[in-house]
Amino acid sequence: MRINRHLAALSAVLIGAGSLAGTAWPREGSRVVSYSCPGGEQFTVEYFDGHVRLRTGAGIFALTGEKTVDGEKYSDGHTLLSANGDQAALVRPGLPDSLACRPVGKTSL
C-alpha cells in the first residue's frame, strides 16, 4: 500500500513537470512568432537582440543573427532561418526547404 501511494505521488509530480516543460515562456525583451509553411511545416521562433531560439519538431536550436539587405538571417552553421517582413524560410541539411512561411496566431512581446 505504501509503495502505491509513493508511486502515485511520483506520477503526479512527473505529469506536472512534463506539462510545464512543454510551455513556452517568452523572456522579457523577446518576441515569439509561430510560422506555418505551405508544405505543412510549422515552427516557432523567439526573437532576441542578435539571436533567436528556433523550436521545430526536431528540437530547440539557438541561432545567431545578422541583418542583411534582404532582411534578417540566423544560423548555427547548419540550420538557416531567413526572415523578411511577414515571411520566413527555414533551410536545414537533409530536409526539404520550408519557404514562404507565414506567421500564424498571436505574437508575444
Automatic annotation (TrEMBL):
InterPro entries: MliC (IPR018660), MliC_sf (IPR036328)
Chain ranges of the C-type lysozyme inhibitor domain: 35-94
Pfam families on file: MliC
Signal peptide span: 1-21
Keywords, comma-separated and alphabetical: Lipoprotein, Membrane, Palmitate, Signal
Name of this chain's protein: C-type lysozyme inhibitor domain-containing protein
